[in-house]
Each structure stands twice: as C-alpha cells, then as structure tokens.
Amino acid sequence: MMPDLFTIIGPLLRSIDPETAHGLAISALRAGLIPRPAAYRDAILQTTLWGRDFVNPVGLAAGFDKNGEVADAMFGFGFGFTEIGSVTPRPQAGNSKPRLFRLVGERGVINRMGFNNDGAEIIAARLADRKSPAAGILGINLGMNKDSTDAAADYEFGVRALARYADYIVVNVSSPNTPGLRALQGREPLVALLSAVAGAVAETGLEPRPALLLKVAPDLTDEDIQDIADVAVSQGIDGLIATNTTIARPESLVSECRDEAGGLSGKPLFGPSTVVLSKLYAATGGRLPIIGVGGISSGADAYAKIRAGASLVQLYSAMVYDGPGLAVRINRDLAALLRRDGFASVAEAVGVEHI
C-alpha cells in the first residue's frame, strides 16, 4: 500500500515549497496519518554496536526530525535507528527562507537551513514525554548556536541537557551552514573539543553511557582525513559519521537551483561521501565503527557503503523522491545481497572493499 500511496501523494508534495512539504510530512507523521508499510525483519540484518542491539543497520539521518517530534513514529517505517537534530543550546530560527531546494533531475537536495530548532531544553522536555522510550535506538545530533563564541560550551550544554535520552550523541562540526563550524575539524581544535565533550558525557554518570560520535564533512583532503582519524582514535570516541552534505557542485548538475548556497545531499553525494567513508575506515584501521550516509536510495547503495567500511547506514534525502516506505525496501534488498555473497551478517561485510 505504501508505494502506491506515495505514487499519488509524492508528486503533490513535490509541487509545493520543499520546506512547507516537509512540515506537512512531520505533522502527518505526528498525527499518525501516514500508513505504515508491512513490517520486515530478518536475522541477517541484526547487528550490535556500543552495547546496543540494532534490528537492522538502516537509520534515519539527522535533519529530517530536527526537533525530536516523530522519532518513535519513524521506527514504524522500517528504520533500525533514528537520529534527531541538530540541536543547539538555545532555540534558533535558522537562515532566511527560501533555504531548501530540490534538484529533481539529479534526485538531490540543497539546504542552507542553519540549525533551525527549538533548542535543547524544549527538545529535552519533549523527549522526556516519549510514550515508548525503548521503541528503538535514538541518536541525538548536537550543534552550536550561530552567535556562540565558545563551541565546546555549546556541545557540553547539549550533552548535559540531552544525553540521558540518547543511545548515542553526535558532535556535528561539519554542516556548511554555520559560519566557522567546519574549522573545528582541524587537528588542534578537534582534540580540544572532543576532550571537552567526552568529559561532559563521563560527568553525566549514565549507565550505559551513550556512545560519542563525530560527524565529518565530505569536502576533506587526505591530510584532513588522517588528522580526523588520528584524533578520533586517540581521544577514544566511539565512532564516526561519514558524511554531512557537500559544498561542491559537480559539473553533472543541471537543475536550475544547482548554484544555490548550502549543502548538497542526495544521489550526487553518494560517490564523494563513500570515498571519504572508505578512506576513514582505512585510516582508522577499522577500529572505529562508521555510520555511512550520503546518497543512499537502494539496497545496493547501502551494501556499497557497508562494503566500503560502514557498520550502519543512514538516509534522508531519498525519501523526498521515494517516500517513507523506502527503509523497508532497502532492508529487504540488503538482506538478499548479503546472502547472495555468502555473508551471515552485516558485520562480516563491513570494509571488505575499502580503499
């Protein structure tokens, strides 16, 4: 039922302003108005990381549910985990509109949202009211306010406010839409930041402790990748997310909004993000779990990320074109691909084709 329904509704949603359409989708999900696809479970897809059991490796990337309004609802659409945010300490309106653009011909999206969200305290209160806090694995993506002068303090604030609700916490220093944010990926500032955030997580005294992950950009040199890998391993963080959106604009883009400022995601990001993922896997010696994100729209895409070094994968932009039932289809196809190649689990396939 889901594919047929979206065949009708999808074109209607894509005929209106992208941000308005996204808001309508969130409202409909919150109200339970979108029919769920038939559940799909397969033991071959089960994986365990950071002491948590994932029913499947396909997650919902940050950006879709910025304010933690529909995290639990999305578990009913086949996702093995969901990630909310980015969340900043104080509420933030984000950049001026329009700030979200579809590249239909390329199945891509450009956004310059600017960390628009309700703020850590409001979102914490919303999560405290969850009816089913154990419904699935929840990640919380943290950012810094645009006018902040102390990045570490912002991320520490987010940890103190939200860590109790998270299975994992993400330090997002890779959005292109907050001035100066990506500079935090440099070796020295990254050491200082991760040390401070890891200390804040430890100070919560939570057991089990939420895992601490770092989300990086795709627009990195090989030297950048090695620096990030070295810092991540030396600081003892629990994993990486590769990658955020890109500021690059491939020559293959033909949509009229291709030159809009912001981060490009969707199908055009698949190749570049997978290269960075693979290089990070090699640079860390496979010692850190990596969540692969960027351009996934099929089971084959998810499988390619896993073979390149991803222990888990995430998607968001593809739902603009394929609907909320996409995760179920990806899981079904991924299970078939794993069996075709003789793997007994996702973990066995991780990194078999890394650079």
Written description of the protein model:
This protein is α/β, with parallel strands linked by helices and 355 residues long. It has twelve helices and 13 strands. The protein has an eight-stranded parallel barrel with strand order 3-4-7-8-9-10-12-13, surrounded by five helices. Strands 5-6-11 form a three-stranded antiparallel β-sheet, with no helix packed on it. It has a two-stranded antiparallel sheet with strand order 1-2. The radius of gyration is 19 Å and the shape is globular.
Short descriptors:
three-stranded antiparallel β-sheet
Please render the helix and strand layout as text:
Blueprint: H1 2-13, H2 18-30, E1 47-49, E2 52-54, E3 58-60, H3 71-75, E4 81-87, E5 100-103, E6 108-111, H4 120-128, E7 137-142, H5 151-162, E8 168-172, H6 187-203, E9 211-216, H7 222-234, E10 239-242, E11 263-266, H8 270-283, E12 290-293, H9 299-308, E13 312-315, H10 318-322, H11 326-340, H12 346-349
Parallel strand pairs: 3-4, 3-13, 4-7, 7-8, 8-9, 9-10, 10-12, 12-13
Antiparallel strand pairs: 1-2, 5-6, 6-11
Helix pairs in contact: 4-5, 5-6, 6-7, 7-8, 8-9, 9-11
What is the gist of this entry?
By secondary structure, this protein is α/β, with parallel strands linked by helices. The protein has helices spanning 2-13, 18-30, 71-75, 120-128, 151-162, 187-203, 222-234, 270-283, 299-308, 318-322, 326-340, 346-349; strands at 47-49, 52-54, 58-60, 81-87, 100-103, 108-111, 137-142, 168-172, 211-216, 239-242, 263-266, 290-293, 312-315.
